[in-house]
Structure formats: structure tokens, C-alpha cells
Amino acid sequence: MASSNDDESDSEYVHPRGVPHFPGHERRSNTLPIWGNERTMNLNPLILTNIQTSHYFKTNLSELKTYHEVVDEIYYKVQHLEPWEKGSRKTSGQTGMCGGVRGVGAGGIVSTPYCLLYKLFTLKLTRKQLIGLITHCDSPYIRGLGFMHIRYTQPPADLFGWFQPYLEDEEEIDPKAGGGHPMTIGTMVRQLLTKLDWYDSLFPRIPVPIQINIDRELAKSFPPAQQQRSIQQPEPPVAMGRDQRDWRREERPSRSPPPRRETYPRSRSRSRDRERIRDRSREKDRDSRYRSSRDRDRDRRDRDRGSERDSKKKSSSRQRSRSRDRDQRRRRDDRR
């Protein structure tokens, strides 16, 4: 297995694939800066907790003390670059901040690649060692973890300088657990520069001005308009004495006619609808008549009650007046 290219010479470095690293690296210190949180590596808290409590990290990886031992472990154990092992994470029915993209509230079995990625972070890699990872010749997954280490830990202003020599790298890698999502190293590097999502997790956010500069630099080498034209509009074949419309018609796949719906006589359905409408209108009329008759009965009862009360009041007033008259007559008679 190839070594890690951990030389002492720092003057003119050219990695084994023949692509020089970004300009000015030889004038920089061999000690790498750490951007963001120096304790968590800017990992998702759920992923970091699962890594630190996993049996594999606490027992197997604790025995590895050197950079070369960890690289050998990556070579033999890593087959993908997802944060969770296949089938161990269930995110169905979760929305919002607890959804699968955020990686919050629904953990699983943390993957071997992410345990090794955090192990590399604890070793405090030097610049030469990190360059040795991304230029390794034995396994694309060693290179992939090197690029992910850069994405998580290096300052955003330096990201394009790290990734620029590898934007067109043609080595194939499949970062999906279980396979099924092959891509080139160049495609992976461009995805790390332009997207935050990474298989149920998120990379650290790049500041907007730096992201604008990265997109501008990528557009120079990979214009999106040309890529879409090359994908969507293939070159037309040379037509021999025919119009351009002919070959388009010939290349179109023949579409089978849609199945006909069974037709039913419309007269019956219309008559049924009319009868239903009539029945509903009749029921409404009955209800309105019944309500009006009830209202009338209530009004009559109220009137009768009011008239009875008035008559009672009148009779009581007459009786009072009569009793007064009698009393007055008696008093007069007594005086006489």
C-alpha cells in the first residue's frame, strides 16, 4: 500500500497524479488552521454524540495512534461516505427540524467512515498529511474522506484553492451506502463546493460573498447553460434531403393511445339529476312552510297571553276602584 507522502521537503510539491496543489501552499505553515468549532469539527451534534459513544470508536480506533494506521483502516473498512449505516436510520413521519435533512431527533448507527473522519480530526493532521490523503492512489475513499475533512475544518476562503486542481478528476467513487450513486471525484468536489446537503446531514455554511466567488469561478470552467444543452438537446443527425422536422418525428417514441372510458347514456343521468333537484326544492318548500306555520302559532300564543294579561290588569283595577267607592260611602254614612 502506498505511503502518505509525509516528506520533509517543502519547496516544490507535486502530488503523484501530476496536478500541482493550489499556488502559495509551499509558503504556508505545515500546521493546518481549524475553522469553526475546534472541539466538534463542525459536525452535527447527533452524529458527534453517536461517534463518541460508539463501540467501534472507543475500542477499535482508540488503539490506532498514527496517521498511517488510520489510513490503512480506511483502506480496508470504508466502502461509502454516508454518516449513517444503511437501513439503520428511520426518518419516516418526521418533518421540520426533526426531518431527515437536519439529522435531528432520529439517530441510527453511525457509519465507519464518519468515525474514521473524526479520528483523523483528533490526530491534528498537518498540511502534508492532508495533501497525502486527497492524492492517495490506493483507494478513492481515502481521497473522499480527505476532501470531506477539508470541507468540515478548513476556512471557507481556502476551499476553492484546495479543490480547484481536482474539479475534473475522473476517478470514480460511490459515496452512497450500499451503492447506487456513482460519481467522479470531480463531481463530488463540485458538490462539496456548491451544496450543503450530504446524505441526511449538513456541511458548515459558506458565507455568501465567498459562495458567490466560488460559483463565479466554477461557471468559468463549467457553464451551467452548456451542461444543460449537452444533456437535454442532443445533436441532430444529418438529414439526407429531408426537413429537420422529419428526424424529430422519427426519433420520438410512439405513444400508445390512452384507453377509452366506458360511455354511459347521459339522458338517464340528467333525468336523475333533475329529479334530485326537484325533490330537494320540494323539501325546502315543506320546511319553509312548516317554519312559517310554527312562527304564526307562536305569534298567536304571544298575542293571546298579552291580551289575557291586559284583561287581568283591567279587572284588578276595576275591583280596586269599586272597593274604594264602597269605603267612601261607608265613611259618609257614619258621619251622618
UniProtKB/TrEMBL annotation:
Composition-biased stretches (Acidic residues): 1-11
Classification lineage: Eukaryota, Metazoa, Ecdysozoa, Arthropoda, Crustacea
Species name: Daphnia magna
Compositionally biased spans, kind Basic and acidic residues: 242-313, 322-336
One Pfam family in the UniProt entry: PRP38
Reported function: Required for pre-mRNA splicing.
Main location as per UniProt: nucleus
InterPro entries: PRP38 (IPR005037)
Protein family per UniProt: Belongs to the PRP38 family.
Protein name in the entry: Pre-mRNA-splicing factor 38
Domain of life assignment: Eukaryota
Residue stretches of biased makeup (Polar residues): 224-233
Keywords: mRNA processing, mRNA splicing, Nucleus, Spliceosome
Region of interest (Disordered), residue spans: 1-29, 221-336
Subcellular localization: Nucleus
